[in-house]
């Protein structure tokens, strides 16, 4: 044996556990000297009994080798070996014998000892023996390893079979479909015991919901020896159900003959339940009559949406389309607002801000001729949901009711201030026949009329005017130097028709006389009818405006001066609103029971021009008033009093007063003699024809005809006018009428 | 109870807001007619809340909001707004407005927006 091999051998022998049994102390010492070249762990026994006892104290496999003498007192080596073999049949024992006797050797072999060496022990034969033992041990280790592998595999297989049985819903049937095997899992899910299933036809678990056609397909497939996969609803013993995905294949015996069918199944009950829930929800959403969809921060619509969306947008697909285009294609403003709002929500980190932005998004839009209510929800930072509801019918109903209310409102507005209305009617009739030649003036007057018609709730007319205004704007934007014919324009816009239609509605309720007769008169029956309607309105709506009007209307019947002047309360209120001026409600101060002759009525009516002037020219706008350190709300006062045989009416305001110089400037343009007038005389110019200090003419005042008509009326009844004018502080008109 | 400053160029709106806020138990400590006045008055009164109109002469509400916010970062401002001003309101919110109220003003809307900004108001009732 070369050195390298010896070294390898010793490396291995040093790890061995050895029991050395020898009765002769001298031999023992000698032997240990030699053995310690090879061995580190040597236990010493002095005879067979000692050896056996030591062997028993250790684990059965502890000693890799027992080296023993044969002839020993108490128990010899042969007897000890026999006893040890009873404990461990495979124990390696090396006998050291002095005899070279074949019978003796035979006895050794009979006992089972394969290895022996002769005394005196030679190094080479010892090495040889160690080599054999080490080789044998190596081989045994390998075998052990192999054995362990196989054991492990067996365990795994057992576990697999176990788990197959526990977790896989498996069964076999014979060719006719009678059950021959079921797994534990099959028992558990079906609720049947194995004994209740074996021998029974497999349709014991067939659920009545399953159509027979499904099984026809299955039998055709497996009879042609192919794999059939399908989802099957099965019936439990307790009447419940479970869903499985079944895989069924033909089953062959070990000799290859077709003896039945084998099936494994996956439990898909949860999946099926989820699907059915999903179906239910989808069904619900599809039939809710509302459109549901979601979209991302990039405004692209996500994959799932309710069917109603398709009908709202009249399209066949929505996936990946831009929601802003679908909703607001025809309205850039809303589209911009929507896009900006969504962007701001995505950018914001504050929940409060997100909510605020969300609430500012467009809430309603006309999509494909339907009015759609749009509600928004934030699903997460990058996704939004919208709910679309067709509210066309609700809106139609609302607008119908609104329209009816509007007609009533119009009647009330018109009837409650007849003077205003008649003036408006006269002006507009005139405007229709003889519209301004200048397009600018025409536009401006049109606009003023629109405002007044809105005020009077004559909405058909105001809408028609609005449409005409838009039309003119469009025409002008296309062609600056266009030669427009105002009459044709009005004809095209049906303004006259709408106006007539509004007038007809007024006629039908208030009677034709109301419109035609310039004097305050109304057919008694119509008036009663109107009063009743107003009474109903004031009761039903509990609106104080109606109640106030009711009181006013009731006073129509009296011919008191108070009543006649009272109508100007609304004139002042409406006009200040229209001109955007803040004025305290007009108060009429005087004896409410004082009656006057109807001959004063034309004069009282002409006073509208005084009130118009006060509101339009007298009271400044808020900035003007604040600059002059006045109450930001203007005051117009009206009082009357019987003094001796005269009636004195005072109308005044706390406005800027009449700019006399300007008045004179205007006046002398037409009459140069006026330049020498005294101040008191100058102010009287206000009553001249066609004179106004206002640079531009509006419908309300400034056309220079108003004050002149007052002068005409008061002259007829022999009265007089005084004007107290204080620049910056206001003006007072004092009328004195003989009673 | 909150000390409130109302900023609006319209007298009607100032009056309506004052009436409604006082009905709710709050105190209108100051009113301003323009953004500029609001900026000038804020430091003097240090109100708990400012109601700010958007469209005003001299200085609009958003500019005023920015200036007040610049000097007093913890100011509480709500915008008073009309239909069609949605984008401006968004601007205001980005610049620190905590809420808005859409005209016409009524007490429900006011309670709603105040409760969002001052949840403790609810507890005191």
Descriptive account of the structure:
The complex is a heterodimer of chains A (739) and B (125). Chain A has 739 residues and is α+β, with helices and mostly antiparallel strands. Chain A contains 30 helices and 20 strands. Mean pLDDT of chain A is 82; it is low at 692-705. Chain B has a single domain (3-116), classed as Rossmann fold. In chain B, 49% of the residues lie in helices and 20% in strands. In chain B, α3 (61-71) links the parallel β3 (49-53) and β4 (77-81). Chain B starts with a strand and ends with a helix. The mean pLDDT of chain B is 88. Chains A and B meet through α13, α14 and α27 of A and α4 of B.
What topology does this entry show?
The complex is a heterodimer of chains A (739) and B (125).
Chain A (H helix, E strand, L loop, with lengths): L2 H11 L3 E5 L3 H11 L5 E5 L2 H10 L7 E5 L7 H11 L5 E5 L4 H10 L3 E4 L4 H45 L1 E6 L4 E4 L1 H7 L3 H4 L14 H12 L4 E8 L5 E12 L5 E10 L1 H18 L3 E7 L4 E5 L1 H7 L9 H6 L3 H16 L3 H10 L3 E4 L2 E11 L2 E8 L1 H25 L1 H16 L5 H17 L3 H20 L7 H7 L2 H16 L1 H5 L7 H18 L2 H13 L4 H18 L8 E3 L11 H6 L1 H11 L3 H6 L8 E8 L2 E8 L6 H11 L8 H5 L22 H11 L3 E7 L3 E9 L1
Parallel strand pairs in A: 1-2, 1-3, 3-4, 4-5, 16-17
Antiparallel strand pairs in A: 6-7, 6-10, 8-9, 9-10, 11-12, 11-15, 13-14, 14-15, 17-18, 18-20, 19-20
Helix pairs in contact in A: 1-6, 3-4, 13-14, 15-20, 17-18, 18-20, 22-23, 24-26
Chain B lengths: L2 E5 L3 H13 L3 E6 L2 H11 L3 E5 L7 H11 L5 E5 L4 H9 L4 E4 L4 H11 L1 H6 L1
